Amino acid sequence: MKKLKQSFRKDEEGAVTIDWVVITAGIIGLVIAIIPLVEAPVGTVTGRTQTALDSADATTTLGS
């Protein structure tokens, strides 16, 4: 039993998995924190693009 405890303490195979889980959770947390900061500017660009496309479409339709 003593040998089993010693080998269990020395075994570090699961430590790498825990490291990856912590790193992944940190990255996901950062992405969730950044989304509100990026959402408004992206919405503005999307709205301007839609306006430009609607304007170009109306010009093309009227010119035909």
- The gross shape turns out to be rod-shaped
The helix-strand sequence is HH
If helices are DSSP runs of H or I spanning 4 or more residues, what is the number of helices?
A: 2
Structural Rg:
27 Å
Helix content: over 70%
Helix-strand category: mainly alpha
Number of domains: 1
Largest sheet: none
Termini gap: 88 Å
Relative strand content: under 5%
Give a brief outline of the structure.
The radius of gyration is 27 Å and the shape is rod-shaped.
Task: Itemize the secondary structure elements and their pairings.
Blueprint: H1 2-10, H2 13-63
Transmembrane segments: 20-38
Keywords: Membrane, Transmembrane, Transmembrane helix
Organism: Thalassobius vesicularis
Report on the architecture of this protein.
The chain crosses the membrane at residues 20-38. Keywords: Membrane, Transmembrane, Transmembrane helix. This is Pilus assembly protein. This protein has one domain (3-62). Helix content is 94%, strand content 0%. The chain has 64 residues and is mostly helical. It has helices at residues 2-10, 13-63. It is rod-shaped and about 85 Å long. The chain starts with a helix and ends with a helix.
